[in-house]
Design goal:
15% strand, two-stranded antiparallel ribbon, alpha+beta, 7 strands, three-stranded antiparallel β-sheet, 191 residues, single chain, globular, 5 helices
Amino acid sequence: GVNFLATAYDSQGKTTFFNGRKIKHMRAKYKRMRKTLQQKGTASARRKLKTIGQRENRWMTDVNHAVTKALVRQYGERTLFVLEDLTGIREKTERVRIHDRYETVSWAFYQFRQLLEYKARLHGSKVMVVAPHYTSLTCPKCGHTEKANRNKRTHTFCCRTCGYTSNDDRIGAMNLQRKGIEYIVEGTTQA
């Protein structure tokens, strides 16, 4: 599920986690309500289902607004935000248990990206989207990439080469930050 909605890592080495536990709880609550109403199958239950779906969508939008606002406020002007390109994540659901699919891959990732791009632009910042390949499997200290480095169940990362250990979301954020720095360095040398 979504343990952290977003994880940020800055050039000072500070990590900020945007907790997703309450979000996970609310999504499970909406899922239970929907299941109960679907089992009834009455006309009034279908109307209620529609209302609940709209309410959940508004709530997801509010959460995305709050997190993107906090990110832009925290990092200020002239910041390069680096996001994973999560396009097509729903097609990869066959790797996720059926029970966990709704909570894991049904978040409005694209909306989050759009909101962050809009707010960043207002503050003279930019959003860069990169391929997510190996961001949580690559050690940010020694560069070793191996599937065994990451334990998805415990959300931990332990490099099999150098022994560096941390939260797997933090490792992903550190690697995204490195990609952002590489982009800036390559951009300034080419200009």
